[in-house]
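Methods — Computational structure assignment.
A single polypeptide chain was analysed. Its primary sequence is given first, followed by the predicted tertiary structure written as structure tokens.
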Amino acid sequence: MSSITSPGVVVRPRTVLADVLPGARVRDAVLVLFGALFTGLMAQITIPMTPVPMTGQTLAVGLVGATLGLRRGTSSMLLYIVLGFALPVYADGGSGVEALWGSSGGYLVGFVLATALIGFLAERGADKKIHLAFAAFVLGQLLVFVPGVLVLQAVTHMSWGDAVHYGFTVFIVGGLVKAAVGGALLPAAWKAVRRYEG
């Protein structure tokens, strides 16, 4: 990626881990596909819960957003949702357009929003320090739960208290663990990159 220079001003591109790799369009296409497939793989790591299972998806969402950035990360998550229309890449090997209208449908929408937010923050350096990466992952996961709880309540007609409990509260500890993992992995990856470049 090149710098854009104007009279007296140098604007450097906002880099994420994906920008360290050589290439441009082909690289981006491969990374977008890989991000979607990685999310599908992490979706199969499941802890059965009712009405929504706990999966590795939200960790994948954070990692995809942070490593690919806003544009590529969002594209990757949209591709993941589209792939799920025909392939068993959703949680527990689920697939089909009807999944968007089920109790987990709001979380799929939240994945796109969270990936965009984490990618946006990563492009501004939030992936390079542990506390900032952790905070970005926490904010991203909160963004997953907003449409997730709204759709869960609308589909199941449970009380709002139950929807918040079963759709959010029971996932708090797991979410914090995933945020801690992401917060540790990303700065470590940047240190490895700098060491290699050095």
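Note: Confidence is low (pLDDT under 50) at residues 1-12.
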